[in-house]
Amino acid sequence: MKKKKNTIGLSLLIMLFFLTTIQGRAQKETQPVNYVNPYIGNISHMLVPTYPTIHLPNSMLRVYPERGDYTGNTVRGLPLIVTSHRGSSAFNLSPYQGEIKDMKSVIDFGYDNEIIRPYYYSVDLDDYNIHVEYAPSHQAGIYRIQFNESGKSPFLVFNTGNGELTSKGNTISGYQKLDNDTRVYIYFETNIQPLKVGTHKGELIDSAVNTTSGHNAYFISEYPIVVKEIKARYGVSFISVEQAKKNLEREIASYDLSGVANKGREIWNSTLGKIAVKGSDENAKTVFYTSLYRIYERMICISEDGRYYSAFDKKVHNDEGIPFYTDDWIWDTHQATHPLRVIIDSKKEVDMINSYLRMADQMERPWMPNFPEVTGDSRRMNANHGVAMVIDAYNKGLRGFDLEKAYVACKAAITEKTLAPWSSKPAGILDRFYKDHGYFPALAKGEQETVPEVHGWEKRQPVAVTLGTVYDEWCLSLIAKALGKEKDATYFSDRSLNYHKIFNKETKFFHPKDASGKFMEDLDYRFPPGIGGRDAYDENNAWVYRWGVQHNIADLVNMMGGKRSFVEELERMYSTPLGKGRPDFHHQFGDHTGIVGQFSMGNEPSMHIPYLYNYAGQPWRTQKRVRNLLKQWFRNDLMGIPGDEDGGGLTSFVVFSLIGFYPVTPGLPMYVIGSPTFETVKLDVGNGKTFEVLCKNYAPENKFIQSAKLNGKVLNKSWILHSDVVKGGHLELVMGKHPNKDWASSDDALPPSFSMYVK
User: Fold this and answer.
1) Burial code of 611-647, b = ≥16 C-beta within 10 A, e = fewer?
2) Which among 222, 213, 193 has a CA at the least distance from the CA of 103?
3) pLDDT digits 0-9 by tens, 151-169
4) DSSP H helical segments within 611-677, as ranges?
5) Rounded CA gap, 357 and 393, in Å?
6) Residue 635 in contact with residue 575, Cβ under 8 Å?
7) pTM, whole model, 2 decimals?
8) Domain 42-269 CATH assignment equals 2.70.98.10
9) Considering Cα of 101, then 105, then 108, then 113, what sign does the dihedral take?
10) Which long-range contacts (CB under 8 A, 24 or more apart) does 17-24 make?
11) CA distance linking residue 475 with residue 385, whole number of Å
12) In CA terms, which of 9, 390, 434, 492 is 20 to 30 Å from 276?
């Protein structure tokens, strides 16, 4: 009997263990933020790593440990606010225990035991035996710093890179200068009164002066030797120190760091929970929710108590109840980041569009911005894809912004501003040529650059400019049509077909052409001239830009010789070797990463390409290719992002692709079906409605669609309407390990191109 009791007891223990484990897993599945791994991509394949940013969704305050990447041996002080995506921190906080004479304006710390969550940060600064915790709010943050060295006074070093600081009691306030006369302000206070605050004078702290200014100006605060913990909280503002203090008092009323972190966790769970996934692949969930978290790093809301500072006219404005957003690189984000927001956060997307229109109103020249930042529009990259953001939202039913005003600003950006990359100058001789001839001219062989609008490093990028602008003109034609401007609609629609002007019928590539109409000679499509191929393309080679006609893919299929030839050429791209050793190739093409043959998964112009098989009646190849690319390049590890992530520009591809469809043509209210990764995905599309993607015969390895139903009706086409998604319902896909090559393969199953009936 005793032995039996022991056996029963052991069985109960085992059962309790498994129940606890199951409950723990269930709890984890209900907490999307648990899956976020900010370290994914922290080691770059070539250029800039994806930093582990601590912030709340679309909030003004963002920080990350300042180091080169995950392999960095030291962190450079503690950050207080990163004012632009991938930028360095304005202001810096350095806790310290040691000799005063060894202090610097910013201290480099060896570190260990780091923990990063979207809403929380902790680290050991092991050189000085200091433990740090941090939590952000929207416009305020809080630190808890533990000093573990006995017999030494604790210090805090507070730095501004270029500005002015004032000390008073337990507070430090001031500003740091940014570009374009923009300033960021801070109000910082500690829970303990320092013994003295002042500037650095050898082995002494000079506390006679309470103001310091200039480059790397800083104060040192000394605290009693008995102090083992200091709590510090601060507010930030782009308006004033007084507003920074108000922001702090509004958001962090006490020194309760755990409360701030818990509130941040709740906000993240609510935000990420707009998309709920279910399946057995835990790594896929981590990649998914980390990618979703990434798209909320930008744009940032800089409205402060109903006001905002605009660098576009250098004035403070009332926001009139519409939050003001900035910091967006639209060349990257128009393709999938903005379209994703249209589905899961449409009100915020409308607010962002209104912000763009305000920026245009406030600038000296009312041109739609294309790289708006807190310091103004930096006019980087090529083309003016704000027009795509506008028409994509409008054609998907979003209202609440002035379409006429958007049309004026977008049209001006395309027709009045130069199309030369990285330039904010008015249209010049090259733009007149583009208007008259329908393409942006390359330099002729031996011709020297003399046009002042052309950037010395970025060059002309003639194919990239032409293809980007004809797409913009197509978007502009759709806005004109919606406004009843039929003449303009026809004019820009006709112009949007000018990609034919640079199509080389012999090679079936888009080929740079000089002003005399002659194709560039001796051009190897793998290695076009210039760093990043900028004398012909931009950041990628001709193989990537070969597919850059997102608004009229059906025409591109015909230009390639029909569906069969189109598929063969797609496959040839993935199979063609680089042609050089990687060191030589990447010496020229730093952005052309995530390579499969000549394809680059690491840059935004490539993101739609895997979905193009659908337009040739072979969606099974898209299903295979998308799944393989996700497995190859987007992983739950330190190098799990293949290129510059650009604040959601690249990871939005991951979110869509793991769900199972993708917005190949922003501007058309439809999505092309790929291969869903999860057993179920539920999207909260607003108004109490949910759209569900449901996989029957689910298994992580079952990537091929056997059959489909939309809301219970047989679906034999490889695309769905946006209206199907936002009205709620379910897309049911029967999956299998091997392809059904007949599904959605007929001509009437192909996704629409160029135009479609807009619901």
Assistant:
1) bbbbbbbbbbbbbbbbbebbeebbbbbbbbbbbbbbb
2) 222
3) 999 999 999 999 999 999 9
4) 619-633, 651-659
5) 14
6) no
7) 0.95
8) yes
9) positive
10) none
11) 9
12) 390
In angstroms, the CA 648 to CA 53 distance is 12
User: Residue 755 contacts by C-beta under 8 Å, 6 or more apart in sequence?
Assistant: none
Fill in the DSSP letter of residue 422.
Answer: T
CA distance 650 to 644: 7
Q: Is the peptide bond before 756 cis (omega within 30 degrees of 0)?
A: no
Taking alpha carbons only, the member of 479, 506, 477 closest to residue 494 is: 477
Tokens found for residue 580: 């050089």
Domains 42-269 and 281-749 share a fold: no
Assigned token pair, 410:
């977008």
Q: Token digits for 535? A: 């004398």
Domain map of the chain by residue range? 42-269, 281-749
The CATH number of 281-749 is which of 2.40.30, 1.50.10, 2.20.25, 1.10.3470? 1.50.10
Long-range contacts of 127-131 (CB under 8 A, 24+ apart): 128/95, 128/96, 128/97, 128/98, 129/97, 130/95, 130/96, 130/97
Cα torsion 484, 487, 488, 492: sign: positive
**C-alpha to C-alpha distance for 444 and 55, rounded to whole angstroms:** 49
Per residue in 192-234, pLDDT (tens digit) is 999 999 998 788 999 998 999 999 999 999 999 999 999 999 9
| DSSP annotation of 261 | H
Q: At a CB cut-off of 8 Å and minimum separation 6, what does 713 contact?
A: none
Q: Percent helix, strand, coil in the chain (nearest 5)?
A: 35, 25, 40
Contact 218, 159 (CB under 8 A): yes
At 36 the three-state DSSP class reads coil
